[in-house]
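Exercise 7. Given the encoded structure of a 467-residue chain, write a plausible sequence.
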C-alpha cells in the first residue's frame, strides 16, 4: 500500500459541506480531516504532500452508467475497460458502474462472468456492475436473488429495442416483484419501443433517412408514456424504480408527480441532454450521426426543465451513458438509414468538467455538483460512504480540481478511444489536475501515472435511499 499522503490548503467540497481543510490519507483511505492552519492539521505528517492552495479537493466522480465494449448493432463500443477507465480518470471519475448483459437464451451468470472477464485486470479505476435482464423467466428471477446477495444489486430492463433487449409489461412486472422482495433496484430504459418501431418504418418508407429523424421518431411523448407506465408497474409491484437517461420535460413531470406522491422513484439525466440538442442531430453531411443516442437529444427548451429537475431533486443523478462509436466505420453504418446508426455518445471524460461549468453558469451550486456526480450515485447504488465523499474511513478517491483553469474540449486532446468529441470546441472553466484512486495517484499534475489493473471490482449493497 502507499504510505501516507497529506493534501494541504484546498477547499474540500462534499455534498453537504465546504471547508478549508487538510486531508490525511493512509493505506488507501481517508484517515482524518483538519481545518487548514489548526494545530490538528499542522500535526499531519506524511511521505507525500500535495499542495491544493487555491484548488478544490473533491471526491472522485461516480459514473453509474457506462457501456465499455458493449455489443450493439453488429459492432462494439470503441472504448475497452482499459481505455475507458483511463479516460474516466483523466476526467476526475474514480468509479464506474458498467452494465453486464444477459443475452436471450442465456443465464444472468453467463453474462456477468463475461463482463468480469472483460474488466478484470484492465481497469485504471474501481468498477462495479449492473445486470441487463433481457430474458425474464423463472430461472432468471431466482438468479436475481443470488446476484443481489453477491453485490450486483441493480437490474436494467428495456421498454425499447424489440427483438434485442426488450421486455414486455408482464416480464417487467415479474422482475419488479422480485426486486421488491430481494432489495434490488430496477433501472428502466423508458421508451415505447413497439410504437417507435412503427414510426421508424414509416419514416424510412417516406425516404426520411437522415440522422435527425432518429430524434423525430423517438418522440418525447413516448418517453413520457413509458416513464408513466414503468412508475405504475413499480407501484403495483411495490418496488423502487430508477429511470435512466431522462431527456424529455414530459418524463421529468411524470417523475416529479410520482415523487410528490411519496413513491420510491428516482431519475437520472446525462450531460448530452443538458448541453446538446436536436440542433446537433440536424448537423449536415451526416455529422448528426455523432449525436445519435437513445433516449435522443431533444429541442433546446427541454434543457431548462432538466436543470430545474436537478435543482429540485426530481432528478438525483447525472451519469454519462458513455457508449462511444467512431464516426468513421461505425456511425457510418447508418448512412442512408438512421435506424442502423449505432446508438451512443462518448462522455465519461467530460462529465465532471461539464457539471463544473454548470456551477460557473449558475445552474447548480458547488455542493449540488458533488451531490449529483459523486454522492447520490454512490448512495443510489450502495457504495456510500466508501465512495462519493471525503470523510474518515472513505476510500481515498480524491480529485484536486483547478476551478480557474480554462480548456477547450476536443477529440485532439481527449483520452477516450473515439475519433470525435460530442463537445468539440466547447470552452470550459475548470479542470482536473491530480486524481487519487484509493490513495494512489492515477493522474499527477495532468500526467497519467496509473496503470491497468489498479482498479478493483467493487461489490455493492442495496440502494441506500430505501434503508
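Solution.
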Amino acid at each position: 500500500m502507499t504510505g501516507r499522503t497529506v493534501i494541504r490548503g484546498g477547499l474540500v467540497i462534499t455534498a453537504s459541506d465546504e471547508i478549508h481543510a487538510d486531508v490525511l490519507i493512509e493505506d488507501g483511505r481517508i484517515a482524518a480531516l483538519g481545518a487548514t492552519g489548526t494545530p490538528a492539521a499542522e500535526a499531519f505528517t506524511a511521505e507525500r504532500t500535495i499542495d491544493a492552495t487555491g484548488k478544490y479537493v473533491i471526491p472522485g466522480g461516480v459514473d453509474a452508467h457506462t457501456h465499455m465494449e458493449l455489443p450493439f448493432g453488429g459492432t462494439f463500443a470503441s472504448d475497452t475497460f482499459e481505455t475507458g477507465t483511463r479516460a474516466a480518470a483523466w476526467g476526475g471519475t474514480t468509479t464506474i458502474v458498467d452494465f453486464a448483459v444477459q443475452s436471450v437464451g442465456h443465464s444472468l451468470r453467463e453474462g456477468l462472468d463475461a463482463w468480469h472477464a472483460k474488466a478484470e485486470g484492465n481497469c485504471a479505476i474501481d468498477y462495479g456492475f449492473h445486470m441487463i435482464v433481457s430474458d425474464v423467466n423463472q430461472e432468471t428471477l431466482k438468479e436475481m436473488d443470488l446476484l443481489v446477495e453477491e453485490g450486483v444489486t441493480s437490474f436494467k430492463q428495456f421498454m425499447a429495442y424489440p427483438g434485442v433487449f426488450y421486455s414486455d409489461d408482464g416480464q417487467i412486472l415479474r422482475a419488479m416483484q422480485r426486486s421488491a422482495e430481494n432489495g434490488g433496484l430496477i433501472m428502466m430504459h423508458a421508451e415505447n419501443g413497439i410504437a417507435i418501431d412503427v414510426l421508424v418504418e414509416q419514416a424510412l418508407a417516406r425516404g426520411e433517412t437522415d440522422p435527425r429523424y432518429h430524434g423525430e421518431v423517438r418522440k418525447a411523448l413516448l418517453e413520457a408514456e413509458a416513464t408513466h407506465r414503468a412508475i405504475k408497474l413499480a407501484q403495483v409491484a411495490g418496488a423502487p424504480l430508477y429511470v435512466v437517461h431522462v431527456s424529455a420535460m414530459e418524463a421529468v413531470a411524470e417523475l416529479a408527480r410520482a415523487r410528490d406522491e411519496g413513491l420510491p422513484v428516482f431519475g437520472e439525466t446525462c450531460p448530452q441532454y443538458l448541453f446538446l440538442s436536436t440542433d446537433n442531430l440536424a448537423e449536415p453531411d451526416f455529422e448528426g450521426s455523432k449525436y445519435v443516442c437513445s433516449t435522443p437529444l431533444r429541442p433546446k427548451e427541454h434543457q431548462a426543465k432538466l436543470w430545474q429537475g436537478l435543482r429540485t431533486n426530481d432528478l438525483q443523478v447525472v451519469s454519462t451513458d458513455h457508449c462511444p462509436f467512431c464516426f468513421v466505420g461505425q456511425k457510418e453504418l447508418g448512412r442512408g438509414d438512421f435506424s442502423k446508426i449505432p446508438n451512443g455518445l462518448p462522455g465519461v471524460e467530460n462529465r465532471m468538467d461539464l457539471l463544473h461549468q454548470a456551477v460557473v453558469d449558475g445552474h447548480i451550486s458547488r455542493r449540488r455538483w458533488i451531490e449529483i456526480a459523486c454522492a447520490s450515485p454512490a448512495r443510489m447504488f450502495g457504495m456510500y460512504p466508501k465512495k462519493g465523499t471525503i470523510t474518515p474511513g472513505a476510500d481515498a478517491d480524491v480529485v484536486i480540481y483547478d476551478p480557474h483553469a480554462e480548456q477547450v474540449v476536443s477529440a485532439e486532446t481527449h483520452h477516450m478511444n473515439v475519433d470525435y468529441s460530442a463537445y468539440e470546441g466547447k470552452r470550459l472553466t475548470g479542470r482536473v489536475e491530480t486524481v487519487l484512486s484509493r490513495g494512489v495517484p492515477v493522474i499527477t499534475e495532468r500526467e497519467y501515472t496509473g496503470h491497468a489493473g489498479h482498479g478493483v471490482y467493487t461489490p455493492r449493497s442495496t440502494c441506500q435511499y430505501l434503508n
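Remark. The mean pLDDT is 97. Students should compare their own answers with the one above.
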